[in-house]
Amino acid sequence: MKEKILQLIKDFEQRKATVSTKEEVEALRLDFIGKKGLITLLMQDFRNVPAEEKREIGMLINEAKQNVESSVAELKEKIEEEELNKKLESEPRIDCTLPVKTGTGALSPRTILQKQIVDMFVSMGFTIEDGNEIETEYNNFDAVNVPASHPARDMQDTFWLDNGEVLKTQTSAAQNRILRTHGPKCRVLFPGRCFRNESLDATHENTFFQIEGVVVDENVSVANLIYFMKEMLKGVFKKDVNVRLRPGFFPFTEPSFELDATCPLCAGKGCGACSHTGWMELCPCGMIHPNVLREAGIDPDKYNGFAFGLGFDRLVMIKTGLDDIRHLNGGNVKLLKQYGTKI
Amino acid sequence: MKISINWIKEFVDLDGIEPDELVKRFNLSTAEIEGVEYKGKDTYKVVFGKILEVKNHPESQKLHILKVDVKSEVLQIVCGAPNVREGMVTCVATVGGAVQGHKIGQAKLAGVESNGMCCSAFELGIGADDEGIMDITEDVPLGEDIKTYLPVDDVILEIDNKTLTNRPDLWGHYGLAREFAVIFDRQLKPLETVDLAKFDGLKKLHIKNNAKNCYRYGAISVDNVTVKKSPMWMAVRLYYAGMRDINLLADITNYIMLELGQPMHAFDHNVVEGIEVIEAKEGDKLLTLEGEEHEIPEGSVVIADNNLVPVAIAGIKGGLKASIADATTNVLFESATFDAVSVRKTSRGIGLVTDASQRYEKSLDPELVPVALGRILEVLKNIDKNIVVSSAFTDEYTKKYDKSVITITEDFIASRIGERVPKDRIVSLLKALGFAVETKGEEIIATVPSYRATKDVSMKEDLVEEIARMYGYDNITPKPLAFEPVPTPLNKAIREEYEVKKMLASKFDAVEIHSYIWNYQDFNDAHYIKTEPVVRLQDSSNAGQSGIRSELVPTMLKVVSENRNMLSDIRVFEVGRVAPRLDENNLVDEEKRLAVVFASQTQTKEELFEQMKKFIVDYAKQDLAIDITLKQGDKPNFMHPYNTFRITSREGDYGYVGVVHPKTATAIDKRLNIVAMEINFGMLSSKEGYFKKAKVPSKFQSVDLDVSILAPISMTYGELEQVLNKYRSKIMSGYEYVGTYTSEALGDKKSVTISYELSGKDHTLEGKEIDEFLNGLIAHLVKNKLEIRK
């Protein structure tokens, strides 16, 4: 009996190695542990085994049966896996290199850059305000210390409207209203579109965007302004920039400055964009003129502050590499489509 | 404005300072220098020579063969200038030399050897005359390098006029020299002038000032002027400064203007005996030296002769009548101050901006009037020894500026600059700038010099600037602002603007546009667009674009039109401002609008409309919790009369959405289907979002029950919805529109499928509950003359 069992196990191992289909596995199972299988038959003979061998033979048979069962299951699984793999292999495949249709909408590069700047100023505790494009003569000129006789009114060729208002020539036109609303301690940033009646070329538009900011508090100094401007430009250009102040002249501020920054294109080495000076004039600024504060109901002996205007379209040109500002004001959809939607 | 460093150096010693350093420090402390020109750099080995002989060239009609004496030798030079003559002294560029970079070598001209070149002033870069070689009448040493005799070598700085708007004192070399002196801590030399008091014993001139805008009129007369032509050095200076020489008397007034910033005028004293300063009457005219006749605006200040005939427009231009002629020997010099605004108005009125008017517009210092006269006599007598001053200094000084005294302290300056400048340094800087300074305890009391007091310096902040710029902005250490943590969320209206833009661009494939603020009348007319601006530009050069837009869609349609041959699908939007109406004070009541236009050759109007409706309904609902309802109502003429709808909610009416009128759309491009919308975005986005009351869904499985309802074709979904909304049931958690079906079999009916979501609050629904719901619904529909499609 024992020899028979051992022989059966040997036979099984031999047969097992030859099996390669589901049907053959089933035949193998039937041959060994089916109703008429060899092991099944042996088990039927078990009662004829002498009592003293029963224990040993019983264990042997059971082991052999279990071995066959688990081997058959294993084989089945393996063959199923192989068959599935074969099937998957022959299935149609996805061409992952086929292009997908991406969105075709886009934001203006102005909106994208403006949002970055706005976010930065919000993080610095600034309130963001919106201003009108059509302003009264008072707001555009008188309230910001540009009286009727002032030559500055010639400096800016103004679009006058037939009702006596103007298309605002500078974002400062919103200063009076903003200072009145926010009171003497404030930090406000106000982007806006401005208009000047001038002839157009690649860098001059009659319609352009500025971003202006004001800070009013007690004891604000020129040193504060320089610090602030430096930090701000660092944020805008995402790198350390050197700044320098030069005297400038604007009626809204006293003293007034032109702020130059290291040319962001050549890092100060000198290039066409900065007329080979290494500096780029970026930001007129100054300490707010006492008359402007007074006109907004703020006591200039107690409070002072600074204001700055970013030539925003210039920044957009630098960031986008566009060489003609007029592209941004037309409806050149094919061009504008390319700027994406990230803000 | 062009500035000569040679000229500056007459008044301040700048030895040892390189031009680059001059430019840099001037830029940082005073005003912007836009350019630097190094004159004479590429011109050398040019000497004075005398033409001994002129012979015709055998091969050429134009050329002559000259023998020129340059002291060390006699050169043979072939010259093409028409004005050569024997005995003439001229400038000769010798072999091995150069003229403005052009190297001079031995050459053969038409076969004849030439050893050098005779030069015109233009060729040498020292004058405008290019008609012939220089014809020198001055007594010059032959063979001498012209650079030892003439200021050919110079550095010319081009200063940005705009940055000098508030600095009348910097419109002349002497004032600029004062700045350089302070910047480099050097001494400013006093101006050499003739003392006018010397002539007090002479007879006064007839001068009358009857114009309130003439602040001061000073004059003096000089006889026996015999020199007619300006010396060469003066001609070079004038040329380098951007002017050209005419005759001595005219030139010398320009010279003083460039030196002191005070415009002057020279009248022929034989023509003009005395001066009456008057205001122009209507119809007054002046014929200028250039032969142009100008009508003088009424009320402008006019310089007239004794007979009240205008001889000059004050501060702007002199007339032909009393101008300096070759025969003039007796001259009346004017030095006057006029009101800045008045000069500006007149100058703009007649469209004539001159060197004089530019200076007067800056508010000149009346104290300069006698200084300029004293200086012109000084310069003139050095050129023409024979002159005789023939009158006393005659001075009508009718309007004086108040003396301006400003008191500051070291602490005040420290707090405003953010850097402590010691008191002594403050005092010395102010003194160098011309302020009279006294100290009293902590106080620094500064009297503003007259040349800064006309409008430039009047308050403490002005002194902050003076001290800071001279102390050096680059010497100020940046200091952070004190920070107070105050919550500053991004302004709601602005945040919404970014969000709606982002949604349109990323979900609806639209491209953001910035279009101009004016209407395009021609485009509108050609495309049957009627839009009436409420406000227009004054004096627009382009009448067709003078109206300010009162709505956005027309400019967006123009964009579509411009792109129609580039793209078959054009989807654009703009958040922009319009002037829709005037308020009771006649001011524009501006609105921030959002306009969207979808135009397509491939999609139908219905598809485009559905997308646009989805955008506005979705945005309003999801972002702002506003339920939008579309209704019939007003629409612009360029929109479809029936398929355009008002966009409304319980809060109000925001604008419209619909199909563009086929007439307009076809005019743009007959291939395009176009839908458009425009809303008052400021109004829509001002609504504060809030958390809606949300229902907690039942834990028990819900049942979807689709019901098809037969309704008349003419019934809108909105009307059907009203009926459906009146049927209520405890187990209904909501319903959704699935679709509409029409067919011939249905006749004048349509089948509208609705999907009801049914669920029990605390149990799984049983069949009979659903039956009850359905039966109730059928009964409700029947009551409303509707039925279920079996």
Write the layout of secondary structure elements.
The complex is a heterodimer of chains A (343) and B (790).
Chain A: H1 2-18, H2 22-33, H3 38-44, H4 51-90, H5 109-123, E1 127-128, E2 134-135, H6 137-140, H7 152-155, E3 166-167, H8 175-182, E4 186-195, E5 207-217, H9 222-237, E6 243-248, E7 253-262, E8 279-288, H10 290-295, E9 304-310, H11 312-320, H12 333-336
Parallel strand pairs in A: 1-4
Antiparallel strand pairs in A: 2-3, 4-5, 5-9, 6-7, 7-8, 8-9
Chain B: E1 2-4, H1 5-9, H2 19-29, E2 33-39, E3 44-56, E4 64-69, E5 74-79, E6 89-99, E7 102-103, E8 107-109, E9 112-114, E10 117-119, H3 121-124, H4 146-149, E11 154-159, H5 173-183, E12 207-209, E13 214-223, H6 232-240, H7 248-260, E14 264-268, E15 275-279, E16 285-287, E17 293-295, E18 301-304, E19 310-313, E20 317-318, E21 331-338, H8 340-350, H9 355-360, H10 368-383, E22 388-389, E23 394-397, E24 405-409, H11 410-417, H12 423-432, E25 436-440, E26 443-447, H13 460-471, H14 492-507, E27 511-512, H15 521-526, H16 553-563, E28 569-578, E29 591-600, H17 605-624, E30 629-631, E31 639-649, E32 652-660, H18 662-668, E33 673-680, H19 681-685, E34 703-712, H20 717-725, E35 732-741, E36 749-758, H21 767-783, E37 787-788
Molecular structure report:
Chain A has 343 residues and is an alpha+beta fold. Chain A has 2 domains: 2-90, no CATH class; 109-339, Bira Bifunctional Protein, Domain 2 (BirA Bifunctional Protein, domain 2). Helix content of chain A is 41%, strand content 17%. In chain A, the strands form 2 sheets. A 7-stranded mixed sheet of chain A has the order 1-4-5-9-8-7-6, with helices on both faces. Chain A has a two-stranded antiparallel sheet with strand order 2-3. In chain A, helix 1 (2-18) runs parallel beside helix 4 (51-90), helix 2 (22-33) packs antiparallel against helix 4 (51-90) and helix 3 packs antiparallel against helix 4. The model of chain A has no long low-confidence stretch (mean pLDDT 89). Chain B is of the alpha+beta class. Chain B has 6 domains: 2-40 and 155-183, 2-Layer Sandwich (Phenylalanyl-tRNA Synthetase, Chain B, domain 1); 44-152, OB fold (Dihydrolipoamide Acetyltransferase, E2P) (Beta Barrel); 196-397, Phenylalanyl-trna Synthetase, Chain B, domain 3 (Phenylalanyl-tRNA Synthetase, Chain B, domain 3); 405-475, Phenylalanyl-tRNA Synthetase, Chain B, domain 1 (2-Layer Sandwich); 492-685, Bira Bifunctional Protein, Domain 2 (BirA Bifunctional Protein, domain 2), CATH 3.30.930.10; 703-788, Alpha-Beta Plaits (2-Layer Sandwich), CATH 3.30.70. Helix content of chain B is 27%, strand content 27%. Chain B contains 21 helices and 37 strands. In chain B, the strands form 9 sheets. Chain B has a 7-stranded mixed sheet, sandwiched between helices. In chain B, strands 3, 4, 5, 6, 7 and 10 form a 6-stranded antiparallel sheet that branches. In chain B, strands 12-15-18-19-20 form a 5-stranded mixed sheet. In chain B, a hairpin with a 2-residue loop joins strand 31 (639-649) and strand 32. Chain B is elongated, with a radius of gyration of 42 Å. The model of chain B has no long low-confidence stretch (mean pLDDT 94). Classes of the chains: A alpha+beta (343), B alpha+beta (790). Chains A and B meet through helix 5, strand 1, helix 7, strand 4 and strand 5 of A and helix 2, helix 8, helix 11, helix 13 and helix 14 of B.
